[in-house]
Amino acid sequence: MTPFKLTEEFIGEIEQLIENQKGTELDSLLKEVHYADVAEIINELDEDEATYLIKLLDSDKTSDVLTELDDDVRESILGNLSSKEIAEELEELDTDDAADIVAELPQEIVQEVISEIEDKEHAKDIVDLLRYDEDSAGGLMAKELVKVSENWTVTKCVKEMRAQAENVTRVHSIYVVDKDEILKGRLSLKDLLTVSTATHIREIYIPKVDYVNVNEKPEEVAKIMSKYDLEAIPVVDEIGRLVGRITIDDIVDVIREEAEKDYQLAAGISQDVEADDSIWELTRARLPWLILGLFGGAGAAVIMGGFEEMFSKYTTLFLFTPLIAAMAGNVGVQSSAIIVQGLANDYLKGSMGNRLIKEILLALLNGLILAAILLLFTWIWKGDFMTAVAISVSLIAVIVVAGFVGTFTPLFLHKRGIDPAIATGPFITTSNDIFGILIYFVIAKLILGI
Amino acid sequence: MTPFKLTEEFIGEIEQLIENQKGTELDSLLKEVHYADVAEIINELDEDEATYLIKLLDSDKTSDVLTELDDDVRESILGNLSSKEIAEELEELDTDDAADIVAELPQEIVQEVISEIEDKEHAKDIVDLLRYDEDSAGGLMAKELVKVSENWTVTKCVKEMRAQAENVTRVHSIYVVDKDEILKGRLSLKDLLTVSTATHIREIYIPKVDYVNVNEKPEEVAKIMSKYDLEAIPVVDEIGRLVGRITIDDIVDVIREEAEKDYQLAAGISQDVEADDSIWELTRARLPWLILGLFGGAGAAVIMGGFEEMFSKYTTLFLFTPLIAAMAGNVGVQSSAIIVQGLANDYLKGSMGNRLIKEILLALLNGLILAAILLLFTWIWKGDFMTAVAISVSLIAVIVVAGFVGTFTPLFLHKRGIDPAIATGPFITTSNDIFGILIYFVIAKLILGI
Predict the structure, then answer these.
(1) What are A177's strand-pairing partners?
(2) Who among A36, A301, A330 is closest to B293 (CB)?
(3) In chain A, what residues touch B262 (CB-CB under 8 Å)?
(4) What is the rounded CA–CA span in Å between residue A425 and residue A267?
(5) What is the pLDDT of residues B367-397, one digit of tens each?
(6) Given an 8 Å threshold on Cβ–Cβ distance, is B330 in contact with A36?
(7) What is the pTM of this model?
(8) Which of A44, A385, B115, B186 has the highest count of CB atoms within 10 angstroms of its CB?
């Protein structure tokens, strides 16, 4: 496949056609373009052009386009559509995607939009999904699935399945429930086709099936599905009733978003921003962390001010403060990143105490090697052995403490139910800068006997 | 599902049973445990115990277990198996997983192992896959797929499909090829079942199908599959022949690994390590970046040494060097992270020049706000307005340069075909530390007229 490449020329062409109201030509030009690509095009258009295009194209295509648009673009387009037009789009979508769109609509039109949906069963399913927290398995799942009762015969089962499968884009599994809708297991299509038609489902179903609870966190669902290589997983409520199904394509999005969020937090970017967002949005996402860093730096300055009387005699010590701060920051970020990643992947076993001891030993080993290099450098450069020793020994202490803080902070936050990812990046760097410089001067002072 | 939780007790129980050679009990205890969980258990056992368990359990389970094990554990277990035993495991696996294992075997036994595989077609497919670069679509794909010729009739097609489907765990699509094996399109099962049996496939297939080239990078395949919500994608060679198929579960692993790698690079961890790896492995992954940081710090010390004559008179300037270094580092990491993420997701549009101008404006805005805060702080603290102005103006310059370097470096590396992710983390922090301190002292000196 030559992947679709969005060009300025193509967008220009589309804009031209929209301006001249060339509906038929637009329709045939975009016919062969995938909806995800049409969404990319529309993201680049202005509001009127975008609305025109959405109204022009078939709703079985535009409904999918809507789900792929940037949030703000979708919001402005929906603002230009009537409740009936929105309902037509929802009609074409799977319940999970439809519910996501309804959840974004202004509260006052939700009821009207829902009432315009002709398929009442579909409308009911969408409303059901609105009840679930966005950040849960319930918020991810769709109502579309193939479900049979253990009390049915094979004949009835096949007939019912055919009707249900009409609404399901891809049938991954056939789920078996009892008369109270409790999930009992799954059915192998092969078994279904090889037994006599009078057989009851309860005699042939497979009682083993992976499932998740509606309240499960999306990250947990992602872990389970990727660990067990599942392409779909049924979702049950608190008493075990089958209420929906999550497919792997939704999980791929969860994994991507999770990774991006952690990465941005580690880099000191607190909101979901992209390089193409406005300067103002980017500033809001970045400035808070920079201000934190500024306060940290001011704290470091005040601490150093407290050792000002050493300035004239031990100038060399002051030359190395950026080095000390940088090493403390780097070690802290390394330690915390490993812990954050381990927590995210459930890799971490063993107690917190053991982990801290290991990190201290690791930091000690790294510290000794780095201190040896620094000792040689400083001694040769300044020719003052005792100062070189003082700086190097302090460096070891600083690294050990930084490793400890970097390990302890995310573990502690995790225990408290706070996302440990906030402990990486500027937060850990800043606190380690201050700690590091304080430790450095105190130890150096002791060694030099000042 | 109550997800499987690996406990010390359970491992103890397993070890006990292994020691007492209780084969039947082990077998029944682990029967209901998913292979991914068995792999977790075996990762915790010693080499002899692990080998015993692999030899004990059925090879249709152990083959899957092998694919899930940690690399080093798998290597040591395979070292204890005969070529025939390894061949039996490979026999049970899909070709892509089998090829991955063969690629890890010592070169001298590969031929013997392959020759022990009874299914010669399977052996041939595995050997074919060994030709492809691990870091390409060819290295990810499996040979298992359902493929029909456009020249067949429906009758012949159904018969052939049935035979092929035997070897395919999950049939996602039926691919249509011509007599030269060139991929032509795909077949809808529904269409196949509703036309007369004498119809030729060429009359009913859908000529539109997404595919990737064997040489495509895994990240690109992941992007295409997740953008278009595909659960499987066919792979073609340079002349368009259908050679394999990639399924979404392999892509989920690619996305995870990619995200982890970028995250670790940003944190200054250069190898694929986990919190539970040995201190030595962790040191090897972390020390190089720390040494880089050490050199950076030493460089900063030398630069500051060049301004030593200012020490006694402009002490305040020196108190703020950690702040300057920290701000330069933070801004650099923020800018580079946004660019790296944008490049990874193909978000970036427009020219490099525009992007640099935007980043400079952004840095200027952030810099002005931060400088204003710092000016107030320093002025109040030290009561020396001119020094406060000098420090604050320098801060603006430092932030702008840091933003520029943070934006330019990943874009430049990307243009040169180097992974821009290495530009985040310690690399950018360290270079910005040095740059920052140099700029700071030069500008402060100019302003204070020293």
Answers:
(1) A149, A183
(2) A330
(3) 259, 263
(4) 5
(5) 999 999 999 999 999 888 999 999 999 999 9
(6) no
(7) 0.80
(8) B186
